[in-house]
Amino acid sequence: MKAIVPVAGKGTRLRPLTHTTPKPLLRVAGQPILAYILDDLRALGVAEVIFVTGHLKERVEEYVRAAYPDVAARFIEQPVQNGTAGAVHLAAPYVQEDVLIVFADTIFEADLGEARRQPPEVAGVIWVQEVEDYQRFGVVVLDRTGAIERIVEKPREPISRLANIGLYYVRDWALLFEGIEAVLRGAPGPGGEFYLTDAFQYMIDRGARLVTARATGWYDAGKPEALLETNAHLLARGRARPPARGEGVIVHAPVYVDDGVVLEAAEIGPNVSLARGSVVRRARLRNAIVGERTEVVDSELEGALLGDDVRVRGLRGRAYLGDHCEVDVPA
Fold first, then answer.
1. Alpha-carbon gap, residue 220 to 237, rounded angstroms
2. Where are the alpha helices (DSSP H) in the chain?
3. For residue 252, what pLDDT is reported?
4. 103, 170, 209, 237 - which has most CB atoms within 10 Å?
């Protein structure tokens, strides 16, 4: 089995952080979003991971090669952002076997081994989670046998609450790429993009049996407030790493404190992640993600995203600061 991981997006809703860091490399609960995906794929034993890159592609490749040297990786650039079908289509020359497709927009908790346990007549699996706000998502509609009958993007009527989470297993890879080519020959959808879900509908319309599997967790990482919520969820679900107790340091669990973090007269938590080499001095942090080598001094922040090598002094409230920023508020 191979895996395709599209990571070409610009992450515009997470600017300014994504001006210098690709969205899949933003940290949540102590590690990049992409690491959660690669840990699962490595555990599954996939033969190769094909990354479809774009924005800041060199950063993605450098990270994967350094952090996952044991993972067989291939990198393909998507020069034109023409949608999810266009991204996956670029991997077609390198896929001649079962394939997983994993989008790095969210962090999921799912049993990928479900792919290996499917009976021969199943052509593919789409992982889903039940949601209340179904109109925000693409949803799947099941027939009486439990197979997928339709995939509908952002329905107006409550035809289904099973949201497609962007995680797919495809056994009939030949029919999938046939469907993608058919989609690319047609008219683009909203925003001038071609959608992978239309290729899955092509498969269904030609008799392929696609079924669903339930995700046990699905966390958004697409915008600042959602990234902070995901950080809180993951810390509460076992990703916490408290610091050694220091004089004048108050900790409200859960928090994640990496190696080499300096805390002096600091109050941190709940839901705070501090990356390697960061410094918090005479400051209070709540619901925040702080990058590497970042200093927060004489400040009180809540709902903050700070990149790497940031310097903050005398700041109060909420802040979204990309790498190499400096803010000094006079007393």
1. 15
2. 33-44, 57-67, 84-89, 173-185, 196-205, 224-234
3. 95
4. 170
Mean pLDDT score across all residues of the chain? 90
- Give pTM, 2 decimals: 0.88
Beta bridge partners of 109: 217
d(CA 255, CA 226): 17
Amino acid sitting at position 226: A
Distance in angstroms (rounded) separating the CA atoms of residues 283 and 298: 5
φ/ψ of residue 180, rounded to 5: -65, -45
**Torsion, Cα of 78, 20, 15, 269 (10° steps):** 130
Of 115-129, 134-148, 204-218, 267-281, minimum mean pLDDT range: 134-148
CA distance 199 to 308: 40
Q: Strand, coil or helix: what is 185? A: helix
